Amino acid sequence: MSHNQPEKTAQSGVKEFHPRVHEAINNPQIRANFRKAMDGLMDKRQAAFPSDDELQGLRDLVAAIRLRALSKLPELLEKLEENLTANGVKVHWAENGDQACQIILDICQQKNAKSVIKGKSMVSEEMELNHYLEKHGIEALESDLGEYIVQLAEETPSHIIMPAIHKNTDEISDLMHDKTGTKKSRDVEYLTAEARQQLRKRFEKADVGVSGVNFAVAETGTLCLVENEGNGRLTTTVPPVHIAVTGIEKVVENLEDVAPLLSLLTRSATGQHITTYFNMISSPRKEGELDGPEEVHLVLVDSGRSNIYQDDELLDTLRCIRCGACMNHCPVYTRIGGHAYGYTYPGPIGKILMPHLAGLDDAKDLPSASSLCGACGEVCPVRIPIPKLLVRLREESVAGDSDHNNSSVKGRGSKRSTSESLIWKGWAKMHKSGGLYRTGTGAATVFRFLMPNKIGAWTKCRTAPKLAPSTLHQQVKARGKNGGEK
Amino acid sequence: MSSIKLYPPKPEKVYFYGTCLVDMFYPDAGMAGIQLLEKQGIEVIFPQDQTCCGQPAYTSGYHDQAREVAAAQLGLFPGDYPIVLPSGSCAGMMREHYPELFAGHPEEAKAKEVAGRIYELTEFLMHVCHIKLEDKGEPIKVAMHTSCSARREMGLGEVGPALLGQLDNVELVEQARVKECCGFGGAFSVRHPEISEAMVTDKVEAIDATGANTLISSDCGCMMNITGAAEHMKKEFKGEHIASFLWRRCHES
Ligand code: SF4
Questions:
Q1: Chain A within 8 Å of B188 (Cβ-Cβ)?
Q2: What CA–CA distance (Å, rounded) separates A27 from A22?
Q3: Which letter, b or e, does each residue of A47-79 get, where b requires 16 or more Cβ atoms within 10 Å of its Cβ?
Q4: Which of A29, A374, A273 is nearest to B180 (CA)?
Q5: B187 by DSSP, 3-state: which?
Q6: Which of A384, A476, A477 best tests the B interface by mutation, with the highest count of B CBs <10 A?
Q7: Distance between CA atoms of A59 and A385, rounded to whole angstroms?
Q8: With a 6 A CB cut-off, is A389 part of the ligand 1 pocket?
Q9: Whole-angstrom Cα distance, residue A204 to residue A235?
Q10: Which fold would CATH assign to domain A17-307?
Q11: Could you say which of A58, A208, B131, B193 is the most buried, measured as most Cβ atoms within 10 Å of its Cβ?
């Protein structure tokens, strides 16, 4: 059984959130694949941090590094551009995904490129680059194994680190058999070797390599790329042109910042102490060098990020280093998988990021789809207070004109409904007066206030809670002591 | 993030804040909590004007309404005694979120002052009262679910099991994925019923698989969720609030 991803992805929201959830939650294969994968990833992360003291100390350090970078973001971006330019890298700025796609297309067309090979990049997913290039007659091939599988299946990534995590070995074997003619096999090494063969040929004929960036170092003008398969290195060194694309928040101040970031990133993501490859790209091929691209470009994409930057609280969203630990530990993600969210970034980070990128009116069901259990915030290496930001976005969703006047969250207030705000006003009136509350507790349960017509949703899988014959207020009073205020 | 808490010596008096769920659905747990505190030689004051900490409105995004209700609670504790709650999630709301909720509002200083006096009941019994429990009950096998607020917001994951560990005839068994949320999350459970159902169903199965016949929780919200689902699924185990359980084992058997 494979999960049917609608043809169109991400922001356009082909299907509403609830039907997608319904489909995923009732698909035993999806449930089993995610549960197994997430359990494994949680164990690996746990094993990578034998000392909690060390972990907490590192989190403090790394959160501070990210915060420092963000606090000087405009300055660091300027410095980054200056140093990259001095190194011979061409820097481009894109306000949104479409502009970024256009910039990349222009470079490709100038070079008469027909074929683009891609390393893994979530920003390129966000702007739907492959689709854009193909529309203009340029073939874009994913070279990360997971991305390659997802592309063969005509799907989108279901996880930001492991794009094909929703598929098990059998599903991958069938897919490769159907699309590329490999033998059906459960031997992961065989399948990987086959994919490697198929991809290797494509690297040789690619005109342009497109990659993401994990950290962009301002002080030295260095682009750091973290990967395990070597496809990132090939993508950035074999084709004559390399285009790196990333969000403006990925900048860090100096090289010293990178080591702790990297250590926490890889351990949080996959439990690895270091990845197989760590690339530091600082210039195109220099005179006398035998390899490397002749041209290197960096496309810096905003797409709503500078808007997040305006708000002191929401700013924390931009600390993210895309490790995926929040989704690995999320009980909601584990049950619905990545596609059900309907956006490029799933899981907790998606719930706090997508409302800005797509607008709260579009991503309206994301902030509420959390029990606020805090598992995400507990593991986030850069200490993003994810539950707090979810509550803030809920507030923004139902905001009227008077609250948070300065907020510029796109689509704010789009969930506000007169009936619901009346309910909460009634709730407040009743609960701010001890007297009114005491006369009303018997009749008005919290649940009726919560969702007057939705108690059915509660009792579908639970028996209804039973009101006690007398309240604690009454019992204390009847006892005749300590009920009064002193 | 839970801050490191320095615990005061045992006071003469405390305020007891029952919480609305205990008030309406589990008053016995509230009474047991009061009695456990009294056994420690503490006078317990129950302000009759208490209602709700405001959490349902707060987590639903209605912060003006949450503030109105929370502001009324701030005035209930004029003496400088600790405030004890038989619920990690309401205690978390008052300790961790009141200061944020009132930031920039006239009640800010008061909110911070009250937040500094908030204790979850089992935390208070263990770290302030240094309670010594003597088990008088029959041998029993129990499982425990600690709420996410108690565990993550308040950092109290070890407290409930430690208290149960003092009871000689109680065997505490641990369910698989013990730290995972039970799926209630207030309005989440009715806004996203299928996800909540999947979570609570898994939780019930994990508890059931331990063979425990009682589920202990220090949060009535989680207990209502888990036992409601267990009953629906025709499972044998029952739920009991930790305060009722401790009181019953040590003072009523
Ligand atoms: S929010 Fe935190 S845990 Fe989630 S991907 Fe970003 S850095 Fe990792």
A1: yes
A2: 9
A3: ebbeeeeebeebbeebbebbeebbeebeebbeb
A4: A374
A5: coil
A6: A476
A7: 13
A8: no
A9: 10
A10: Rossmann fold (3.40.50)
A11: A208
Nearest CA to ligand 1 atom 6: A320
Q: For residues A403 and A395, what is the distance between their CA atoms, to the nearest angstrom?
A: 9
CB A44 within 8 A of CB A271: yes
For chain B positions 72-131, those within 8 Å of chain A (CB to CB) are 72, 76, 78-79, 100
Contact call for residues A6 and A14 (beta carbons, < 8 A): yes
Q: Distance from B88 to chain A by nearest Cα, in Å?
A: 12
Q: Is the pLDDT of residue B2 over 70?
A: no
Interface test with B, best of A462, A466, A473, A481 (most B CBs within 10 A): A462
Q: Considering the domain B140-252, what is its CATH architecture?
A: 3-Layer(aba) Sandwich (3.40)
Contacts of A471 in chain B (CB under 8 A): 23-24, 27
Q: What is the DSSP string of B116-136?
A: TTEEEHHHIIIIIS-------
Using DSSP's 3-state secondary structure scheme, residue A242 falls into strand
**Spatial separation of the C-alpha atoms in residues B55 and B113, rounded to whole Å:** 19
Complete DSSP assignment for A94-154: ESSHHHHHHHHHHHHHHTT--EEEE---HHHHHTTHHHHHHHTT-EEEE-SHHHHHHHHTT
ipTM: 0.95
A412 contacts A399 by C-beta, under 8 angstroms:
yes
pTM score: 0.94
What b/e readout covers B95-122, taking b as 16+ CB neighbours within 10 angstroms?
bbbbbbbbeeeebeebbeebbebbbbbb
Among A residues 342-371, those touching chain B with beta carbons less than 8 Å apart:
365, 368-371
| B170-173 β-sheet, strand order | B170-173, B140-145, B214-217, B238-241
Mean pLDDT across A174-188:
95
pLDDT at residue A1 is higher than 70: no
Closest chain A CA to residue B20: A446
| CB distance A323 to ligand 1 below 6 Å | yes
What are the pLDDT digits (tens) for A359-410? 999 999 999 999 999 999 999 999 999 999 999 999 999 887 555 556 788 8
Q: Is A248 in the pocket of ligand 1 (CB under 6 A)?
A: no
What digits encode the pLDDT tens for the residues B59-113? 999 999 999 999 999 999 999 999 999 999 999 999 999 999 999 999 999 999 9
State the DSSP code for A285: P
Between CA A409 and CA A389 the distance in angstroms is 12
Ligand 1 pocket member A353 (CB < 6 A): no
Which residue has its alpha carbon closest to ligand 1 atom 7?
A320
* Ligand 1 close to Cβ of residue A308 (< 6 A): no
Cα radius of gyration (chain B): 18
Contacts of A412 in chain B (CB under 8 A): none
Break chain A into its structural domains and give their ranges: 17-307, 418-481
The winner for highest mean pLDDT among A477-481, B20-24, B114-118 is: B114-118
